[in-house]
Amino acid sequence: MSDTPVIGVLALQGDVREHLIALASADALARPVRRPEELAGVDGLVIPGGESTTMSKLAVLFGMMEPLRERVRAGMPVYGTCAGMIMLADKILDPRAGQETVGGIDMIVRRNAFGRQNESFEASVTVRGIEEDTQGPVEGVFIRAPWVESVGASVQVLAEHRGHMVAVRQKNALATSFHPELTGDHRVHALFVEMVRAVL
Ligand code: GLN
Questions:
Q1: pLDDT of 104-131, one tens digit each?
Q2: Which residues line ligand 1 (CB under 6 A)?
Q3: Which among 14, 68, 70, 76 is placed 20 to 30 Å from 106, CA to CA?
Q4: CATH architecture classification, 6-197
């Protein structure tokens, strides 16, 4: 199938393997991306959950920060979960000293907004653009999850939880506070694969 999109998972830190599996289940060719040459070979990219401060440091260290910004600016579809959402924020409310982001979504995020590791939780989330007919709402896994504090006019809010924005999209960039890669429900990944297919 020549129109099978090749989707990378940024593999500097975080839950890379789970995303590779979810993407493959959603009919994409999935591969890890660590170096600029590897980034050049993918049609879209997932930035996984993990720890955004570490991921940011490693992206700079591996010479990936600028190439990532360039691809996202040029319209490459990108999907960030949790720490990945933080990486896609144009602004972090409470960054660590020197913490940089790739940016791409005109939003301000608050890190660890839903609490600490031991306050992690699961909740049903209705996500715009995801059919609920057969499987119901998406089960959101929130682990030291950020929320979106505010968005610019060109950002679409796809989901809220407890009155806070937890899924957003701006053009080719998608971000969720939660981790669909951990649930076996691949509807959010399928939505992203469609976004990538649309620009092939
Ligand atoms: N709180 C973490 C951060 O700042 C994100 C946690 C996660 O990705 N599960 O990066």
A1: 999 999 999 999 888 999 999 999 999 9
A2: 49-52, 82-83, 86, 111-112, 143-144
A3: 14
A4: 3-Layer(aba) Sandwich (3.40)
